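The records we work with from here on pair a chain with its fold. Taken together, the tokens spell out the fold as the letters spell out the chain. To see the layout at work, look at the sequence and tokens printed below.
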Amino acid sequence: KQSKKKIRQLTIQRHHQHNTKATLFSTDTKMKFTLLFASIIGSAAAFTSRSSPIATSRVSASSSSSALSATIAVFGASGLTASECVYQALKEGDKVVGLTRNPSNLVIPKGSGGSDADKPLTDPNLTLIGGSVTNPADVAKVFETPIDGVIVALGGKTSDVGDTMLTVGTNNIMAAMKENGVKRIAVVTSIGAGDSKDQAPFAFKLLMMTVMKKIFNDKNNQEAAVESSGLEYCIIR
């Protein structure tokens, strides 16, 4: 109930059969995960049939998680939203290959981890790789395992990761996807990015134009790269 109260507005804009944008006016990581997971997983047929919509529900296909298991790549795996994705995907019986600069930072999330929250997140179906998305060689390691879909939930201060990490890293990921025949990508950006600029609250717009100007330039370029990639994408804000 509390998470529902946090959601003030949710708009879905479907541009064509495979590509979707979802603007979520909330920082609730569990809800973001739901949208990310729906866009990547869909039904079991979603990975074999290009005619399947990107946000098809996994639940409607079958109640058997083993029959619908997939291998999901999560970039930025130790972040708040990404760790929720990793945790819940593993709980669904899926395999996860994660890339993060700091593997030791991946812990069970507070959102759904209950009493186990903040404990190290380990699982036989989890492969965790230390590296940077700005290094194509590190990104390539993820795709040494056959991947069904990709979640990109990158973050970090520009002072630590640079002014173009989101765009460069996402381009590296998408290049590796194309090389390995992976079609589906879900990308977490932010309210205010891309064509959601006018939907941001006034106070947040001031931040976007001042102290957060560099990061939003990067987010805008990241979204533009995804939209022009030719991949089946879902952008989550």
